[in-house]
């Protein structure tokens, strides 16, 4: 085995869970192209078969899979057992949620405890849940941002690994603020994930 191949086999195997656009997933995949990146993306998995991010991942040469949640109806854990099987089949060691818009059950959270991270578009513990940018503007916050945290049972409640801050500017709408925060997410997430897999 060459030195380069040997280095590749040492990289942490990360699966990325998405539900939509996939811009954070793309940032993770792009960062993994650096020779010194300590992780590789081995699977992009979506609960939505029509997620734009699946097309982007496939175009980037990353294995993709959709496991639609709808056939599972109200049995959220059964859907997660199917996700978990796919993650293990791919040999994933870490899971990065990147715009995965379903609340997880205790099953998946416990199965990946300490090895599952999420990015959230607010300065947690402020504004867990949805509509973070509108809430930050309405509160008159001078700063907004994003957080990468370990996933625990409470939604958006796990230990924070890192945050990035951006200013809220006069005249910001949820859309303009969202764009500024999203750019920060794309830098923060690969860096925070790299630090996690190295520790
Ligand atoms: C991102 O802003 C991410 O932080 C947010 O969804 C967006 C997904 O965009 N996640 C959450 O709100 C999770 N609670 P993307 O698909 O382009 O990465």
Write a brief caption for the model:
With 199 residues, the protein is α/β, with parallel strands linked by helices. It has seven helices and seven strands.
Using the CA coordinates, give the radius of gyration.
17 Å
Bound compounds: glycinamide ribonucleotide
CA(first)-CA(last) distance: 26 Å
Would you tell me the structural class of the helices and strands?
Answer: alpha/beta
Overview of the molecule:
The protein is of the alpha/beta class. 38% of the residues lie in helices and 22% in strands. It has seven helices and seven strands; from the N terminus they run αβαβαβαβαβαββα. It has helices at 3-9, 23-31, 52-59, 76-89, 106-111, 132-138, 174-198, and strands spanning 12-18, 39-46, 64-66, 94-97, 116-120, 143-150, 160-167. The chain has a seven-stranded mixed sheet with strand order 3-2-1-4-5-6-7, sandwiched between helices. α2 packs parallel to α7 and α6 crosses α7 (174-198). The chain is globular. Residues 18, 20-24, 53, 98-99, 119-121, 182, 185 line the site of glycinamide ribonucleotide (GAR).
What's the structural blueprint in terms of helices and strands?
Blueprint: H1 3-9, E1 12-18, H2 23-31, E2 39-46, H3 52-59, E3 64-66, H4 76-89, E4 94-97, H5 106-111, E5 116-120, H6 132-138, E6 143-150, E7 160-167, H7 174-198
Parallel strand pairs: 1-2, 1-4, 2-3, 4-5
Antiparallel strand pairs: 5-6, 6-7
Helix pairs in contact: 2-7, 6-7
Bound molecules: glycinamide ribonucleotide.
Glycinamide ribonucleotide binds near residues 23, 24, 120 and 182.
């Amino acid at each position: 085995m060459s030195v380069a191949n040997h280095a590749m086999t040492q990289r942490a195997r990360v699966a990325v869970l998405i539900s939509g656009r996939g811009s954070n997933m793309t940032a993770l995949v792009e960062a993994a192209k650096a020779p010194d990146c300590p992780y590789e993306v081995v699977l992009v998995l979506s609960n939505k078969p029509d997620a734009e991010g699946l097309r982007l991942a496939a175009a980037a040469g990353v294995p993709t899979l959709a496991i639609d949640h709808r056939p599972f109806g109200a049995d959220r854990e059964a859907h997660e057992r199917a996700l978990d099987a796919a993650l293990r089949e791919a040999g994933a060691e870490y899971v990065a949620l990147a715009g995965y818009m379903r609340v997880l059950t205790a099953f998946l959270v416990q199965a990946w405890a300490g090895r599952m991270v999420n990015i959230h578009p607010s300065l947690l513990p402020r504004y867990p849940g949805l509509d973070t940018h509108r809430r930050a503007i309405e509160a008159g916050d001078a700063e907004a941002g994003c957080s990468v945290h370990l996933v625990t049972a409470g939604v958006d409640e796990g230990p924070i690994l890192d945050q990035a801050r951006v200013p809220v500017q006069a005249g910001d709408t949820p859309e303009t603020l969202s764009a500024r925060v999203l750019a920060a997410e794309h830098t923060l997430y690969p860096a925070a994930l790299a630090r996690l897999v190295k520790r």
